[in-house]
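In the laboratory, one determines a bound structure by crystallizing the protein with its ligand and collecting diffraction data. In a computational setting the workflow is compressed into a single prediction: the sequence and the ligand go in, and a structural description comes out. We illustrate the idea with pyridoxal-5'-phosphate.
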Amino acid sequence: MNHPGGEAERLADLELGPEDMRAMGRKVLERVVRHLASLGEMPICGDVDAVEFCRQLREDAPEEGRPLEDLLELLFDDCIPRSFTTPGPGYLAYIPGGGLYPAALAELISSATNRFTGIWQAAPALSQLEGNVLEWIRQWMSFPDGSAGLLTAGGSQSNLTAIICAREKYLGAEIRGGTVHASSQVHHSIRKAARLAGIMPDRVRALAVDGRFRLDVRALSRAIQADRRDGLQPFLVVSSAGTVNTGAVDPLPEIAELCQREGLWHHVDGAYGGFFHLCPELRPVLRGLEQADSLTLDPHKGLFLPYGTGALLVRDGEDLRAAHAASAGYLPRAPEAAEFYDASQHGPELSRPFRGLRVWLPVQLFGVQKLRAAILEKHELAVRAATQLAGHSMIRIAARPELSLFTFHLTWPGAGLQAENRATKLLIERVKARGRIMMSGCTTQGRDLARICVLSFRTRGEQVELCVTQVLEEAERILAEERV
Ligand SMILES: *Cc1c(COP(=O)(O)O)cnc(C)c1O
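The predicted complex, in structure-token form:
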């Protein structure tokens, strides 16, 4: 304790010198690039049976710092491999996306420069870049001038914000009588978001679907009338533009028309399917999307960005602002009118990451043409896989790939539902156990289905061929066992 003051000052200094920063950056980048370059060789599902390992990981925060190398080793050698290899090319489970590398660089820039993008005045030019991103998304989705947008952490948050906008507009303070209508296939985040928005589960209707898993518009109409007869107040219909279960796209134009006639908010959950609208070839599948009052998108799916990138469009931008406008004496005033984009006037956050950059940089670097081509390719790959599988009598396609997701189950002469369910679930497990391809499953109306979703930019023809081969091989083997 010779120089207590000097020692305390040294201890309190958290700044790094330029050479240290460069050296740390190089080490991190080296591990990251090595990791990405070997994604194709990694098991598609790491050792996620990790209960004991997780218990070992628990520790108190260290009083003294540790070397970066040790921490990178822990992350890259022990923790990251214990996961689904979601960015891997053989990942066809749930809804993939991959995570474009330039978006990671954008994250580095935005976190390192750490400017405040919650309020326009604090970083007007950066806010404008985010405004540009939202304007691109508006144009891609053919939403009208006067729409407003918001980048969120994901589809769940976008759905929540949309429900709040609808609730504010149609219910005001009297929310208990409000009811929400959606199909039985709608994403579970809708029920969760409704509850968070004060619309309790007994006010959310799960309606019948047709043979293609699409919302039955006549059932919708009847349910709305029934609620009204009961003195309730339907205010919101949620459609899906690509369900997670089977990829179904609800009849959007008919639902839009019904909502218009009945004076209801029409929200479209396009978290999976929305970005296919970028491809003129696929717009007919999504017809009516552009008529929605609000639209959820997930750039971390259809735009291949890293997790934590969601988006919302609201047709009448005033509805989004009305639900979020807020100010305080200690803050600069929000910009006049809607010419400039002020994130805190459009969403729930004040301080926030500069989310716009992780969309902006990849779009600038690659150009839209390239993204569109990649999205279209994923559709074509899914169609090819479904067509090849459909040619086999032991496979029945349950839902064709309208976008890039399809479902199927195993079948054979004399098989009952239980046996087919068992065999189909076994198939998913057996293919995963081979280590290169991961599919996932779903259950609809008591039937277990295997689902293949092609949406990682890293998934190319090679992986889809491998998937078809492995599915057929394992299916043959399971059927041989069943027949014994
Ligand atoms: C992924 C998804 C969601 C949820 O979005 P998150 O980004 O995971 O929060 C909601 N709806 C659909 C249709 C989805 O595919």
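The longest strand covers residues 233-240. Keep in mind that any predicted model is a hypothesis to be tested, not a measurement.
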